[in-house]
Amino acid sequence: MTLISHLVSVGDATIKFWSISSDQLQLIQEHTMEQINGFDTNYTDMIAYGDNKSVQLQSLTMEDGLLKLGDPELAMQFNTQVRKVQFVGGKYLAAISEDSTAHLMFLDSKTVKKLPKGGHEANIKNFAVDPLCEFIATIGCDGTLIVS
């Protein structure tokens, strides 16, 4: 059985990393952006996105039993606000923005592929990736579902 040893909390402009030891909660690190709208983690990296139209990627490591956050690096830049970001299959980072663009980052090479809008006549509302990470499906506010 694995016990949870860390907790992450998100406020308006701060992500805080906490260490849980017995009855105590200890702040070990925090990260600040202009406005944080969401984050995700895949155990080795953390992503955060906010009103600045970008996605930041930071490494997560353990040192002396405590979680350490690496320096932020720009992973993706959009023309409008980022709507959703998530790690996919341990190999990719996918994101969509208000201007109906979708990006896919290959985590091993840090290269970003901009996916074509491909027929959405309104904003992309959400996306999903198949279990084998071969296809990405986007759904638009116009009711259009596109699989690329």
Which keywords apply here?
148 residues, mainly beta, Methylamine Dehydrogenase, Chain H
Q: Any overview of this molecule?
A:
The protein is mainly β. It has a single domain (about 5-145), classed as Methylamine Dehydrogenase, Chain H. The chain has no helices and 15 strands. It has strands spanning about 5-10, 15-20, 25-30, 35-40, 45-50, 55-65, 65-70, 75, 80-90, 90-95, 100-105, 110-115, 125-130, 135-140, 145. The strands form four sheets. Strands 4, 5, 6, 7 and 8 form a five-stranded antiparallel sheet that branches. The radius of gyration is 17 Å and the shape is elongated.
- Indicate the radius of gyration in whole angstroms: 17 Å
Question: How many domains?
Answer: 1
Order of helices and strands: EEEEEEEEEEEEEEE
Low confidence ranges: none
CATH structural architecture:
7 Propeller
The average pLDDT value, as a whole number, equals: 80
| Cα distance spanning the termini | 40 Å
- CATH C-level name: Mainly Beta
Largest sheet: 5 strands, antiparallel
Topology at a glance:
Blueprint: E1 6-10, E2 14-21, E3 24-32, E4 36-41, E5 45-50, E6 54-63, E7 66-69, E8 73-77, E9 82-88, E10 92-97, E11 102-106, E12 111-115, E13 124-129, E14 136-140, E15 145-147
Antiparallel strand pairs: 1-2, 2-3, 4-5, 5-6, 6-7, 6-8, 9-10, 10-11, 11-12, 13-14, 14-15
